[in-house]
Design a protein that fits this description.
By secondary structure, the protein is of the alpha+beta class. It is about 30% helix and about 30% strand.
């Protein structure tokens, strides 16, 4: 930790707490995150064609990811509930994987990185659920924040 940095999620006695954001300025904030699901080329063909045994996985996963963004504070204990202005989930299919990219926006006092990560993760879990009948060995990985903007710390992008 750099000098002047505090462990803001810890109370003086070391117990966990929700950070007090009441003095922060309201700004436009945005975050983009990804998750990558790796499977077989045949499953990718079924996924893209909408021919999986459970049906149209990408449409279901898109809605699940958006719902996940909206429910982040219920899932991650120290996250603040935020008024989400926008949430999108997009898919970038490749030969044996699909990259799931989620972008979340708000106008508020704290960032939406956790909401973007949750959206990408829940969408990936939903794709897995939809393909597990044809590939139980699929892997979800590379979950990370790609970019964020707004707030006192300014803009940031994954190198």
């Amino acid at each position: 930790m750099a000098d002047g940095d505090e462990l803001t999620h810890l109370a003086p006695d070391g117990s966990a707490r929700m950070v007090d954001v009441s003095e922060k300025s309201v700004t436009k904030r945005q975050a983009t995150a990804q998750a990558v699901l790796t499977t077989t080329p045949e499953v990718m063909r079924l996924l893209v064609a909408g021919e999986l045994p459970k049906g149209e996985a990408l449409a279901v996963a898109r809605v699940a990811g958006i719902l996940g963004a909206k429910q982040t504070s219920s899932l991650v204990p120290l996250c603040h509930p935020l008024p989400i202005s926008s949430a999108s989930v997009d898919f970038e299919p490749a030969e044996s994987s699909v990259r799931i990219v989620a972008t979340v926006k708000t106008t508020g006092v704290t960032g939406v990185e956790m909401e973007a990560l949750t959206a990408a993760s829940i969408a990936a879990l939903t794709v897995y659920d939809m393909i597990k009948a044809v590939d139980r060995a699929a892997v979800i990985g590379e979950v990370k924040v790609l970019a964020k903007s707004g707030g006192a710390s300014g803009d940031w992008e994954q190198a």
